[in-house]
Sequence to fold (920 residues):
Amino acid sequence: MVTFSPINTSILNNLSQIVGQDNISTSDSERQLHSRDQSFHEAHLPDVVVWANTAQEVADILALANSHHVPVTAWGAGSSLEGNPLPVHGGILLDMSKMDSIVAIHADDFQVTVQAGKPRKDLNRVLAKYGLFFPPDPGANATIGGMLANNAAGIRTVKYGASKDNILKMQVALADGRLIEVGSRSVKQSAGYNLLQLFVGSEGTLGIITEATLKLAPIPQFRTTMIATFATVEAAIEAVVAIRGSGIDVAALEFLDTIAVTMLIRSGVEIEPNHTLFMEVHTAHESSMQADIDLVSEICKEFDCISFLPIQDYTEQGKLWEARHGSYETIVRLNPDKQFQVMDVAVPISAYPEIIDFGKQLLDEHNIQAALIGHASDGNIHFTLPYSNKDELAIIKHINSLVIAKALELGGTATGEHGVGIGKKAYMSDEHGEAVDVMRMLKQTLDPNGILNPSKVIPD
Amino acid sequence: MVTFSPINTSILNNLSQIVGQDNISTSDSERQLHSRDQSFHEAHLPDVVVWANTAQEVADILALANSHHVPVTAWGAGSSLEGNPLPVHGGILLDMSKMDSIVAIHADDFQVTVQAGKPRKDLNRVLAKYGLFFPPDPGANATIGGMLANNAAGIRTVKYGASKDNILKMQVALADGRLIEVGSRSVKQSAGYNLLQLFVGSEGTLGIITEATLKLAPIPQFRTTMIATFATVEAAIEAVVAIRGSGIDVAALEFLDTIAVTMLIRSGVEIEPNHTLFMEVHTAHESSMQADIDLVSEICKEFDCISFLPIQDYTEQGKLWEARHGSYETIVRLNPDKQFQVMDVAVPISAYPEIIDFGKQLLDEHNIQAALIGHASDGNIHFTLPYSNKDELAIIKHINSLVIAKALELGGTATGEHGVGIGKKAYMSDEHGEAVDVMRMLKQTLDPNGILNPSKVIPD
Fold:
């Protein structure tokens, strides 16, 4: 068991020397602002909040913390859902939000280099002028560093991949204060171990990402949203599997059940109260767009859709996707007496109907009304599990664990895109078996004092 | 410096117990067959060749070798180009070619699980019945395990990615004899460290891949090959950059200069003796195919192409790609008095004209006639450097090192797809800086006795 040293005045003075006294705070308000993410996980107060402005400052903070055995937890936008950036052992909360510069735009290479604290929506606003965008879209205005550290995904992963698929090169600060470069601006590289992907998804437990060169995509020439509604969950999900199997290059294929859709309607969105697929296709030619729409429509009709509506107008599209993105917040807002735990299992697409059926049966047995929202194209489903007291929490935790066990049995994962954080540690051994020992060895090698985001990812 | 123990009778007996006496050989012929790959690198004889039939046998061999400090070098098809599978310290040559079973075909999930020794062409023949294929295409009939261990790429990487992008899950035998599973059949996973990508591209130095679940693509509905020829290298390369920038989803975009094309003509291929782009587009609709062809044609004409020919006939297409694939062998065959070293630098696409210009000038200065063959879409170029004696070898090695230094300066890599092996070790520190120390730490952690493919990847 790793033990940590308390923060003392000398360490605070050293931190202040590194970042300047305006970039360090021990105030209650700042500590509280950095004590919880958007999840149900218990708050943990850091001892001190530090804002870094440069990669060298990050490295210097780590060298200092490492020599004093003080924990360091990196913080992007605080939008994670599994307690990933919570400073469970106190220590230094390293806020990266001031490192938000665009370092270089390589428009001809479809690449951009940014500091890790850049929020993705802000970045995409700038990139739009170049006709480019960074595709991973988890909904929240997460920072690029946070997205990479958690391998965030969201809608559009089916076409463009998760964060891990849209990164070429990073600068990373190691626990001992070294700054290294991993990856290459060359899209092809077979030059030794893939350190890039070792740090992606490591949730700040192996190193802290300070800068990233991202792979960008051209903003599609033609974009159509399609809404199809179904009488049963089964029909909608069967349509999903058929659309995926057809080879159509969909850019998004999202499922919302009637409970989720009803919430959206109550918040003012004009759609029908049925099980619904939200879809999007991106193409370079108008003719292939129509062909894609025709094929999707045909498949939806084959599975007895109640309605099928292609939407070409970009403003209308924007409103619908805004509603889809805000669906979790809408559910929370409309149920002020409830708290929610969001499940994040994912399975091979052929097992998608089975995992949904399994989860729904469990919920029915316990008489729980939970909205189902899923990145259906990737076999990823979020059951939004409500509770209002300890007993109900115990029940939904139990349901969560049963659904996760089923997902693993079906060849899937306990966590499709939310990372491990605190919430999924308990399932790591079930999912990975002895490979967890290898993860533990890598952690020990790269962070021998265990200062980086301690008590995350690796089970104790 | 790691020291190894010699193979003795007791170890041979133990090996024989693991794999059976039919699967072990110390004969000169077998040792020689496994002493060199397709590169110019010096031959190294193993002490014993062992054929494994199961993952457990691989694990048992490693446990045995580890306890006796005997090197183990895995061997797929022996088609690598940087000495990657050469047993430089002798010991056990572990031939994986008998592990060639298809374990499971998950057609609905576009996935297949195979043993690591399966040759890719054999696999694709089976998958064709399901309308699917494994896209990475290095030309040679490499084994899946070898492709993954080297992160092989080849043509079509621009659309489908390298081997690393087409793998979901692997079984890996560790140096200590443990068998672990890494990755998931779920296409989305954010559950801890990405061990999958740590073993991909590690060239058998961190573990030996025994089984792999691959991501497959549907065989495209429509496929067109296009041949465009140009008067100058510059015009051809500028067309490449423009085609990449246009957002057209090309499936292959290959460049061959006049020297390379002339060799193909001498071997019987009917094309014009000019600088040439070989291109391919894959689409789901006929209409978008025509739109793609029109756009590529327009761009090629903008850069004053001499000719532009779309080829729809699949037999004709096959012949041309066969010729492109065989170009290196053709060059070797037509120059029996020469040996060749193949360069493998890759740069961001915007720097492609500059790296080619730089290399060509150097070759001109030394009056060397070298064919240029490149996966142009990925910024990857192979200068095929001829030599017939030690002095000429010294010159081309010097040229190679200058071009690599230039590629690194331009944000590129010393090795786009051939791996590090023996040939690129000297450039690892220039390319990665201090990150090489991290690679060394990982090697030490996962293979403390240094038995796995020793003296590869990591510089001494």
The first strand of chain A starts at residue 24 and ends at 25. Residues 282 and 384 of chain A are 29 Å apart (CA to CA). Chain A touches chain B through 89 residues (CB under 8 Å). Chain A has 16 helices and 19 strands.
